[in-house]
Amino acid sequence: GENVGLHLPTLSVQEGDNSIINCAYSNSASDYFIWYKQESGKGPQFIIDIRSNMDKRQGQRVTVLLNKTVKHLSLQIAATQPGDSAVYFCAENLEGGSYIPTFGRGTSLIVHP
Amino acid sequence: SQTIHQWPATLVQPVGSPLSLECTVEGTSNPNLYWYRQAAGRGLQLLFYSVGIGQISSEVPQNLSASRPQDRQFILSSKKLLLSDSGFYLCAWSPRHIVQNTEAFFGQGTRLTVV
Fold first, then answer.
1. Among A30, A88, A94, A108, which is least packed, fewest CB within 10 Å?
2. What are the tens digits of pLDDT across the range B102-114?
């Protein structure tokens, strides 16, 4: 994608604050979305997912919001901890197609103690 | 349970040398397999994906190739490495024969430095 060569945007927060990470997706036909967390030197790990028939889904300390009208996805992390420091990616999948994870640009979250 | 193995973890290779990175998946059959590359401080770029043995789709033209000699084995290769091939290479898999979409599961990555 055209965003893979760009430096990742950075979000810096204080420990205990809430974090909001945003993602714009490209295809209005996408029907499944995932947030991944990538710690330094490791592969991405699943955090939470949401399907297009929902606009909100909650997990443990994390909430994903989906706005299909503007093709926007957000990840909210409550009471951010130093262990949350990582790069966060959103990924989308197209309805009815072979599953090819298509990743957004990513955001680097830095949590200051 | 399913696991994915990717090796080596780090690799330093001279320009012009060949490359072979291997990825294997255990505990599942007929997975979709993927190779991604990630430059330092940047996003994930899909290089290749495979939906079956011997079936490889390339997403970007480059100095690399991929092969799937067995159902759960995915290999990334190059005949002659370039400096620009340096990066963090990630293998991933996802289930194929299911109705609903699921996440992709990633290996731990290979840090390749071409010198």
1. A94
2. 788 999 999 999 9
